[in-house]
Amino acid sequence: MVLEATMIIIDNSESSRNGDYPPSRFEAQAEAVSRIFFLKTTDNPESKVGLMSMGGKGPEVLVTLSSDFGKILEGVHRTKIGGSTHFATSIQIAGLALKHRQNKSQRQRVIVFCCSPIAEDEKTLVKLAKKMKKVNISIDLVAFGELEGENIKKLEAFNENVTGAEGSHLATIPPGPNLLSEILATTQIMGGDGSSGGAGAGAEGASGGEGAVNGFDFGVDPSMEPELALALRVSLEEEKARIDKEKREQEAAEGKKNLEGIPEEGDAKPSTAGDKKDGDPSPDAGGSGSKDGQGNEGDRMDTT
């Protein structure tokens, strides 16, 4: 199990409003963020996940590194769509957030969703990639939406120069009927075989995503009802947490009850002494006889 600190950067620029990835580019990212969070924290409970946006007026850290899924959801919900992407700046800020992580034994990783034109030139991106590689930060790129021309060329150049020992990946996901998160699950970014990762992924990625949809455990097709699918998944996690808490409380209560039923070492002695006193009337009888004898002797002395 890999212990990681992961910063996820979502693209909330104007391009994320498009609906070519159901239900929209932005909502498709939100579902993918939830899936990545559960993957990382399930693989190792001590792993942490943070969230950033790179659109609007500038990059914004929405959630610092955390294991609380509620904070991640809140960060996604209060993200506003607008502006253009700030690709390089957002990665640099994510790198600073990872640098100040509390657990220094956590490996550093950044996952970037990009569905908008990248303003920085290739030379700037290559320089940034080498800098991230030097400080041992792995960067996974999820390219969707803008899949032609200079954008893909820039991302490929960045990926080639940032790839290190810990592994950095580029997943290029074309539009289709399946959820972005389901196709992403088949890539190396989320531990898949990589059949849909890299440039030129098409039918293979779509077929892999379709298999994941058919294997959805809640009886709901997430490609048709993504919001319901996300709500069901979140509810399941909350129910599991509640059951685990009740189980721990019940075990603690039973342990306390068992301890109360065990007599202490000094409790048996007073009980034994009491039993002997109640069951043996001889001392009382002897005492009464002694008193009677003394009384009779006194009477005889008076008579005399």
Features:
50% helix, 6 strands, disordered C terminus, 304 residues, alpha/beta, single chain
Q: What does this protein look like?
A:
This protein has 304 residues and is an alpha/beta fold. Helices cover 50% and strands 12% of the residues. A six-stranded mixed sheet has the order 3-2-1-4-5-6, with helices on both faces. Helix 4 packs parallel to helix 5 (150-162). The longest helix is centred in the C-terminal third of the chain and has 35 residues, at 226-260. The model is unreliable at 196-216 and 271-304 (pLDDT under 50).
Layout: helices, strands, pairs:
Blueprint: E1 4-10, H1 25-43, E2 48-53, E3 60-66, H2 69-77, H3 87-99, E4 107-114, H4 122-134, E5 137-143, H5 150-162, E6 170-172, H6 180-184, H7 203-214, H8 226-260, H9 268-279, H10 282-303
Parallel strand pairs: 1-2, 1-4, 4-5, 5-6
Antiparallel strand pairs: 2-3
Helix pairs in contact: 1-2, 4-5
Number of helical regions: 10
Oligomer: single chain
The main sheet orders its strands as 3-2-1-4-5-6
What is the first-to-last residue Cα distance?
107 Å
Assign a percent range to the helix content.
40-55%
Q: Globular, elongated, flat, extended or rod-shaped: what is the shape?
A: globular
